Amino acid sequence: MADGLMGGGRAAFAIRDYSIYIASRFLWGLGQHIQTIAIAWLVYELTRDPLALGLIGLAAFVPVIVLALVSGPVADRYDRRLIIVICSVTMAAASAGVMAAVLTGYVHAGRTWPLYAAVIVFGAARAFSGPAGQALVMSLVPREIYTSAAAWNNTVNQSATLIGPSIGGLLFPFGAMVPFAVACVSLVAAAVLAIMISARPKAEAKPPVTFAMLVAGYQFIWRTPVILGTITLDLVAVLFAGATALLPIFAKDIFETGPWGLGLLRSMPSVGSILAALILANFTLRWHVGRTMFASVAIYGLATIGFGLSTNIFVGAIFLVLLGAADMVSVVIRQTLIQIETPDDMRGRTIAVHNILTGTSNQLGEFESGVLASFIGTVPTVVTGGVIAVVSTFIWMRLFPDLRNRERFS
């Protein structure tokens, strides 16, 4: 591997289109996370039911599965920039719809379905924008700064994840509709910026749509053990160790705070993620790539256990910072391996599969947490998930020796 592959510093920002993309991505993430936290708080405030929180994850999961076979090919066949614009506008429309439903009083304790409908629309838009956005960013920068660009991309995403919940929590006391209005404006601004990116139409002829084309991403991952190991380990860890869906319960019932407490808890993993991403963006990770990824997943599980056992919001926040940092290390390593190992003409499909598997694990994890918490309680659910993540790390180290022994990215 060339020494510069993991470096790059801030060189990516000298590229106009990359800088515009990053600004658009930040506003997109900001709007998404403001709405996400507003919906979670509103649902729990209206229902006080852990299962209702879990159903938010299920609602986000359904469109991803339904669109699983088409989102990747769409990113490989059509202008990725325009896909991002369309998805941003669609999400803005969903925010406006929720805002109207809240403003008119249509949403109440006995009628929460509009909130779940908005989550479904958001999930459908993310199913297309995720592969298109990640594939586009790597077409904006030269190969030698791929990993630096990926780390900066994740830094910006996590910045939005940090700021979005905080804004949502602070805006909620001014009226339930206010966070959705701000989310709508942010998403529209993201679409406007995306339009400013130079168009990159496909020069080659578009291949015919066949079943083989649709499943090519799955086949490629299955034939590449290094990528298969990283994706499936993340899937298992997040599926069982995700505590996100239960944060409203921790904020309201365990730590006895209000929306600001939920905003704080939702933001803390991003603090750790940003710190880790900044380090990875500026310093070279040259050795022990595989073992570093496994260690990060184990730390993720241990931090989840620590958070689950916390009785003080600030102690819990520290564990969430550690959890976010460990997760970011795993994410950057995984994304870099996928970008390097995958040909450009298959990158959209491969990233789509990656997003489907890891994204659905997040959403199914939220559903699983909500269901399990309704039976055994919130704290046991989180602690059990952390234990499973740690145990899975050691199992995967035995199942995927090539990944375990991977020293460099290439």
Structure description:
This protein is mainly α and 410 residues long. It has a single domain, classed as Growth Hormone, Chain: A, CATH 1.20.1250. The protein is 78% helix and 0% strand. The protein contains 16 helices and no strands. The longest helix is centred in the last third of the chain and has 33 residues, at 344-376. The chain is globular and about 55 Å long.
Determine the strand fraction and express it as a percent band.
under 5%
> In which range does the helix fraction lie?
over 70%
The total strand number stands at 0
Q: What's the CATH architecture?
A: Up-down Bundle
How many helices? The count is 16
Order of helices and strands: HHHHHHHHHHHHHHHH
Task: Name a few traits of the molecule.
disordered N terminus, 410 residues, Growth Hormone, Chain: A, 16 helices, mainly alpha, 0% strand
Topology:
Blueprint: H1 16-47, H2 50-66, H3 68-77, H4 80-103, H5 113-137, H6 146-171, H7 178-195, H8 211-222, H9 225-241, H10 247-254, H11 259-282, H12 289-308, H13 313-341, H14 344-376, H15 378-399, H16 401-404
Helix pairs in contact: 1-2, 1-4, 1-5, 1-6, 1-7, 2-5, 2-14, 3-5, 3-8, 3-14, 4-5, 4-7, 5-14, 6-11, 6-13, 8-14, 9-12, 9-13, 9-14, 9-15, 10-11, 11-13, 12-13, 12-15, 14-15
